[in-house]
Amino acid sequence: MKNLGLLDKIIFIFNSLAATGLLLSYLLAFIPPKSFPLLSVLSLGVPILILINLVFLIFWLVRFKRQFLLSFLILLIGFNYVTSLYQFSGDTRTSKEELSIMSYNVRLFNAYNWTREKNIPTKITDFIKEKDPDILLTQEHTVDEVKLQRIYPYHYVHRKGKNSEFGSAIFSKYPIIGKYSVGFPHDGNNNAIYADVVVKEDTLRIFNVHFQSLNIKPEIDALRKEDSKKLLGRIGQGFSMQQEQAEMMMDKVNEDGYKTIIAGDFNNTAFSYIYEMITAEGRFTDAFLNSGQGFGQTFKLNYFPLRIDFMLVESGIQINSFERYKNSFSDHYPILTRIKI
C-alpha cells in the first residue's frame, strides 16, 4: 500500500471488500439457510463477486502490481466456484445407444399472457417434437393443453392439491413402473415428483424437482422498484423453505439403490446450500460442468447469467452431452442431457 497513489489505494480498498465478500460467500454453501436466512441471500451474488474479482485481478496484472495476489488467491481458493460459473469447453461424447432427458419450466404455457408472443403452447410443443427427448420433465405444468400425452405413451402429471394452479410432469417413451410425489408441506405449487423408468434392462429413478419459488421478476427495473427489505426477507425465507424441501427429497433419493437422475428448477444457484447438500458426497455429476459451455444461463434475468435449472446425473452414468436452448417461450431456457445406456 505504501507504494500506491491515493487513487490506487482507494481502488485496492474496494478490491479488498469484494475479495472479503467472495470469501464469505464461499462459506454460505455450508451454512443452513434456516440458521441465517438473510445471510444466505449473499450466495446469489457469487457470480457478480467472481466477475468483479476477475476485473481487479486483470487491472493489477496489466499494471504489474503485486496487489493482484489478493483476488488471485481468493479465486484460487474457490476454484470450483469459478469453474461452476463458466465452462470454456465441454466433454462431449457419443455412443450407439443414448437416452436424452429434457427439463423445461414452461411457465404455465403462457396461460396469463406474460408475453405478447402468440401461440406459445403450440411453439413449445413443436420445439419438444423437434428436439425429441426420450424423457421430458416439465415444471409449472398446467392442464395438458399442448397434448404432450399424445407424444409420449407413458406419463405422470401431478398437482400437489386439488386447487393447485399448476404442477409438474414426467413424460417418457419408456415404461414407467412407479410414480411418486414427495409432497412438500409448504403452501404453493412447488413440489418434487419422481418415477421409476425401465430403460432396456435397467431401471432409472428420475426426479423432477421444483424447489420453492423466490418470485424474482426477470426485469432488473422491476427489482429496483421493489422494497429491498421485503425482497431480501422473501428470498431468505424462500431459501429456508428450500432447505427443508431438499432434505425431504434427499430422504427419498437415498431410500433405494436405483440409479438416479435429479433434474428441474432449483430456484437457486450452484453456489447454494441445497446444491452443495445434494452433490456433496460425489454421488451426482452436474451435466453442465461435465459437458456444458459458457455461463449456462437458464433464467432470463437481464444482464445476469443465472443458472438455476440443473441436470444431476448419477456418477456411474456416462454423460455424453449437455445443451441449453435459448428460446423465448418461457422465462426459463430448456436444458437437455444425453447419457449412455
Verbal overview:
- This protein has 341 residues and is α+β, with helices and mostly antiparallel strands.
- It has two domains: 6-85; 98-340, Deoxyribonuclease I, Chain A (4-Layer Sandwich), CATH 3.60.10.
- The protein is 35% helix and 23% strand.
- The protein has eleven helices and twelve strands.
- It has helices at residues 6-28, 37-40, 46-62, 68-77, 79-85, 120-131, 148-151, 220-225, 228-253, 273-279, 287-291; strands at 98-105, 135-141, 154-158, 167-172, 176-181, 191-199, 202-210, 259-265, 284-286, 309-314, 319-324, 335-340.
- The strands form two sheets. A six-stranded mixed beta sheet has the order 3-4-2-1-12-11. Strands 5-6-7-8-10-9 form a six-stranded mixed beta sheet.
- β1, α6 (120-131) and β2 (135-141) form a beta-alpha-beta unit.
- α1 (6-28) runs parallel beside α4 and α9 (228-253) packs parallel to α10.
- The N and C termini lie far apart (58 Å).
- 40% of the residues are buried.
